[in-house]
Amino acid sequence: PAQASNRAIQGLARDIDQRILIQRLGLSAEQFSGFNPSLRVWFNENLSEALYTTPAELGMMLEFTVLLFAALAFSRERELGTIEQLLVMPFSSLEIIIGKSIPVIIVGFADFLLMLGMVHFAFDVPIRGSFLLLMVLAFGYLLVELGKGLVLSVISKTQHQAFLLVLLVGMVDFMFTGYAAPVESMPQVLQWFANVIPAHHWLTILRGIALKGAGMDVLWPNVLALAILGTVIGAFSLQFVRKALD
């Protein structure tokens, strides 16, 4: 808002200077009316910082919540010394993974719904697009982060180690989401790297649906990229975790 006001004042001062100069030359100001460029802001007309940053914070909250709870799934068992009891139970590795994943999915999705309601009613962040589409894509992104968290869980020996790994992975994702700095302003190599970060596509989808009212006709490149990354990460994490448990 301050920058917009400053630009408006500068434009007004420039217009007055031009009119005074034309009058001193003995000419008519109407002959040199030209055109007046104006800045038009779409989707955030009041330049509200909360309207731009809050959806991004909501998206990152979903990532960190799922990553943290998933990373503690097996690391806590290993630290408490109960991992052996879990492995000798008459369950396959796939059944153990599903059993550990269900609570994370429930908590993560419930937390996202709660926070979405808060940012909508407390901060007046609109949901201009399809709410159903947002829920479906949020659930899909949740599964992607669940796979990453389970990998961190089986390679961590303690809960503290799992927590530090979550911070490391989360901060790397944060730098390439476009929240801290626009991805378009990064070097080309870093832009390519950002395209393999699921959180980058997730924040684009979340902002597109919430602020722009975008649908699949606009968001399909990000949805397709997220689906491909999710398939690769999910297949790798499932194989890696099952091998570690076996």
Radius of gyration: 25 Å
Number of strands: 0
Uncertain runs: none
Separation of the first and last Cα atoms: 58 Å
On the 0-100 scale, what is the average pLDDT?
A: 85
Overall tally of domains: 2
The share of residues in extended strands comes to under 5%
Give the biggest beta sheet: none
Helix/sheet category: mainly alpha
- Kindly state the percentage of residues in helix: over 70%
Shape: elongated
Return the string of H and E elements. Answer: HHHHHHHHH
> Number of helical runs?
9
Give structural notes.
It is a single chain. The chain is mainly α and 246 residues long. It folds into two domains: 31 residues; 196 residues, no CATH class. The chain is built from nine helices and no strands. The chain is elongated.
Descriptive terms for the model:
246 residues; mainly alpha; 2 domains; 9 helices; elongated
Question: Which secondary structure elements does this structure contain, and how are they paired or packed?
Answer:
Elements: H1 2-24, H2 49-80, H3 83-87, H4 93-121, H5 131-155, H6 159-175, H7 188-194, H8 198-212, H9 216-245
In short:
By secondary structure, this protein is mainly alpha-helical. It has helices spanning 2-24, 49-80, 83-87, 93-121, 131-155, 159-175, 188-194, 198-212, 216-245.
